[in-house]
From TrEMBL:
Gene behind this protein: MYN1_Chr_695
Ranges for region Disordered: 1-21
Organism annotation: Paulinella micropora
Lineage, top ranks: Eukaryota, Sar, Rhizaria, Cercozoa, Imbricatea
GO MF annotations in UniProt: oxidoreductase activity, acting on CH or CH2 groups, with an iron-sulfur protein as acceptor
Full protein name: Coenzyme F420-reducing hydrogenase related protein
Alphabetic keyword roster: Plastid
Length: 404
């Protein structure tokens, strides 16, 4: 005869666990990026799955791509395991998308062709343009309603609870690096037959309150901003609800104010290029107006083929030398220097013309963020730093002179 305790013991850990109550301190405490995992029963695996409790890039890459990145090849050291890289834009861009809308178009094709039953993506709340509302989308309209970045931490994985009892067996997951890492760690315990991950690079994310401080300290009209991006021309491009654009040079940021707005999770994150995704779509390795695509494995290739005939494609390029600019940035950041706006515009103008472009711009951005984040982790988490900072990031950071 089977006893009740035997039955309970037979259950999978997530069937014996409840989601954490909303508002409760998460296991990663102040480092939590609110990825949503702990809002589901899959919190049962949090010790192994949370990227802020347990870094496992090598094991993840090995399992997902069949090998981990080769640290002796500069392109893999920076951009992770990949099969091919290209830049592209949709021949017919989607109005209102973050860039040309390749992510949304590809997702729609994945549903229309039957590759997947649903797409995990993020819509916005009716009251607030920047408050994320994750969903499992099943129609083109639902996917289109999720277009454009919600530039705040987003609990994407909370919707995994809805898989149980649904008829979703094949899922396309859209997400940033921390969400991908947590998802990969529990993927095999989900009631799914097939999974594809379309990732985006991500850096410097903020809580909703942090976003408010950023907009107020950077834009002339913070309340009308509907969309913004840190672009390859070294300007932040704000788009306002009245159709106007506003450009603010990176070098003119109010460093003392902006320094503290980024979420601690993002100040300790080294997964800028989304190492565990099958296909990654960003912009920073492409020339202005194009998107940057990194195909990591055969599933990523399958995803790209859905949309390839609709793309205008160009090869990736690289020019300039980032090292001096990165070193100057480290020193300026450390001393919280703010340039007057006229000087920031002149510096921006010069850097745009003679500064790093294409893949070299990506390396500039990765170097700048990894050095800042390594410093932050060393200063705030002492002995945790050695284990937390992945090997590839240590190698990248070692090229620079860091303040003590
Ligand atoms: C927070 C964030 C930071 C980014 N930072 C960089 C960067 O530094 N460098 C770079 O090259 N690229 C970055 N990207 C990716 C880039 O900005 C574009 O999102 C990408 O190129 C796709 O553009 P698109 O026009 O095809 O997207 P769209 O077709 O507009 O689709 C955007 C997709 O993003 C998803 N999404 C929106 N907000 C979030 C969120 N908070 N978390 C997870 N998913 C979300 C939506 O579900 C939607 O499917 C970032 C993206 C995000 C969300
Ligand atoms: S980052 Fe995700 S997995 Fe880690 S504590 Fe926060 S919600 Fe949980
Ligand atoms: S910067 Fe890293 S931790 Fe922060 S939201 Fe992006 S992927 Fe997650």
């Amino acid at each position: 005869m089977t006893t009740l305790s035997n039955n309970v013991a037979d259950l999978a850990p997530h069937d014996r666990t409840r989601p954490l109550k909303k508002g409760k301190v998460k296991p990663a405490r102040d480092l939590c990026s609110e990825c949503g995992l702990c809002d589901t029963r899959w919190v049962a695996y949090v010790k192994q799955a949370c990227p802020f409790l347990h870094q496992q890039f090598e094991a993840m890459e090995l399992e997902v791509h069949g090998r981990s990145r080769n640290l002796d090849l500069e392109e893999e050291l920076y951009f992770g395991v990949y099969q091919r890289m290209l830049t592209a834009r949709l021949k017919q861009p989607i109005i209102g998308a973050q860039w040309t809308g390749i992510v949304s178009r590809l997702s729609i094709k994945a549903i229309e062709t039957g590759l997947v039953d649903a797409v995990l993506c993020v819509q916005q709340s009716e009251e607030d343009r920047f408050t994320p509302v994750p969903i499992l989308a099943r129609t083109a309209d639902e996917i289109l309603a999720a277009r454009v970045n919600k530039a705040t931490l987003s609990p994407n994985l909370e919707v995994l609870e809805q898989l149980s009892g649904s008829n979703i067996k094949r899922l396309l997951v859209i997400g940033v690096g921390c969400q991908t890492q947590a998802f990969r760690a529990i993927q095999n315990t989900l009631p799914l037959d097939a999974v594809y991950i379309l990732g985006m690079p991500c850096v410097d994310n903020v809580s909703r309150a942090g976003l408010e401080t950023f907009l107020k300290s950077t834009s002339k009209s913070p309340d009308t901003v509907i969309h913004y991006e840190f672009m390859q021309d070294f300007y932040i491009h704000f788009h306002h609800s009245n159709g106007k654009s506003e450009l603010v040079p990176f070098f003119g940021l109010d460093t003392p104010k902006v320094k503290d707005i980024f979420a601690p999770s993002c100040l300790s994150c080294f997964d800028y290029v989304n190492a565990g995704a099958d296909l990654v779509i960003g912009y920073m390795g492409a020339k202005f107006g194009y998107q940057w695509l990194t195909v990591r494995n055969s599933r990523g290739e399958q995803l790209l083929q859905l949309v390839e005939p609709e793309l205008e494609i160009q090869p990736v390029t690289s020019s300039g030398n980032r090292h001096a600019a990165v070193q100057q940035g480290i020193d300026a950041y450390n001393q919280s220097i703010r340039l007057p706006s006229w000087m920031a515009s002149i510096v921006g103008w010069f850097v745009q013309r003679i500064g790093p472009q294409g893949l070299e711009y990506s390396r500039f951005s990765i170097d700048s963020h990894f050095t800042r984040n390594a410093l932050w982790v060393w200063r705030h988490h002492g002995e945790k730093a050695e284990k937390h900072i992945p090997l590839f990031a240590k190698k990248i950071v070692s090229q620079y002179r860091l303040p003590s």
